[in-house]
Amino acid sequence: MEYRELGKTGLMVSRLGLGGLPLQRIDAAGTRKILERLMEAGVNYIDTARAYTVSEALLGEGLLGIRDKFILATKSMARTKAEMEKDIDISLKNLKTDYIDLYQVHNPNEAQLETVMAPGGALEVLMEAKEAGKIGHIGVTAHSPKVFEMALSLPWVETIMFPYNIVENQGEEYIRACQEKNIGFIAMKPMAGGNIEDGSLAVRYILANPNVTVAIPGMASVEEVAENTAAANDPSPLTGEEKEKAAAIVKELGTQFCRRCNYCAPCTVGINISSVFLFAGYLRRYDLAGWSKDRYDLQPVKADACIECGACEKRCPYQLPIREMLKKAHRDLEAVKK
Ligand code: SF4
Ligand code: SF4
């Protein structure tokens, strides 16, 4: 496993890390197994979030006795000092540790990042926690290039996390700037929110960029750990065939696709937006008509219930035309004959 310095934190991290979001699907024993396999493979970086429901707590259980083998990162959507103070303490308790290596401000927009830095903002308590030894370093995660650009100029930002994968390379110039400014760059959404099925290609594509410090695919099974660690351990450049496959994925997905981040939720009338797009995507890309239709039919609220209030579109970090996309998804799914 290759290791890199995580920017100005000075921490030596494996170039492959664990994205802790899908741990929500498994239990503490399963999490422990994954951690043991990661340890054997030399992976030492774990990312989770206050927002990933039970993920922090499962990691806390799983890390008992092996906490010191990992560099632990989490993040919070708190923007004010009081909220962040509470969240840091909850994270420490959930993770059953007295020290978190990296604490990140989770996906702020530009105005929220200003709030974080204003008097009474979350940054005050992050600095205090750093001083007190509760956290080691401070980072920012972002989905918008504008926030990425803003974070690059902030002296307290030691790491930046941003989506980077075969179909989302709009941050490449900023990722290069991270390297120049000695800011650790953490690549999130390596599989574009589950839209890229070839995990091995996805990991190899990201790690081929020397400016990426660490990529953090979500892993919830030992099979995924095996596939991703094998890919990360393969130092050979991408083959012609792999480049062709990557180009085909770009052509297929384009730019307007749902990353299943669920920031658009809740829908005013209860449509499960990301699930509708998942079913429509499987119908289009993998010809899984019966599978997609069956699952769509089980949805308590179908996409045609949309009242076009637009609330979801304001929350989507990718500015997707959700209303139009839902209409098309509904049409395609309803047209399936069983
Ligand atoms: S525009 Fe439609 S999908 Fe979006 S929140 Fe409103 S009702 Fe829900
Ligand atoms: S529609 Fe946008 S906000 Fe909602 S899950 Fe998809 S990418 Fe995320």
UniProtKB/TrEMBL annotation:
Give the top-rank taxon of the lineage listed in the UniProt record for this protein: Bacteria
Keyword Iron-sulfur, does the record have it? yes
Has keyword Iron? yes
Pfam families, per this entry? Aldo_ket_red (PF00248), Fer4_17 (PF13534)
Q: Where is the 4Fe-4S ferredoxin-type domain?
A: 296-326
InterPro entries, alphabetized: 4Fe4S_Fe-S-bd (IPR017896), 4Fe4S_Fe_S_CS (IPR017900), AKR (IPR020471), AKR2_Oxidoreductase (IPR053135), NAD(P)_OxRdtase_dom_sf (IPR036812), NADP_OxRdtase_dom (IPR023210)
Coiled-coil regions listed: none
Q: Could you give a GO molecular-function term held by this entry?
A: iron-sulfur cluster binding
For this UniProt record, the keywords arranged alphabetically read as follows: Iron, Iron-sulfur, Metal-binding
Q: What is this protein called?
A: Aldo/keto reductase
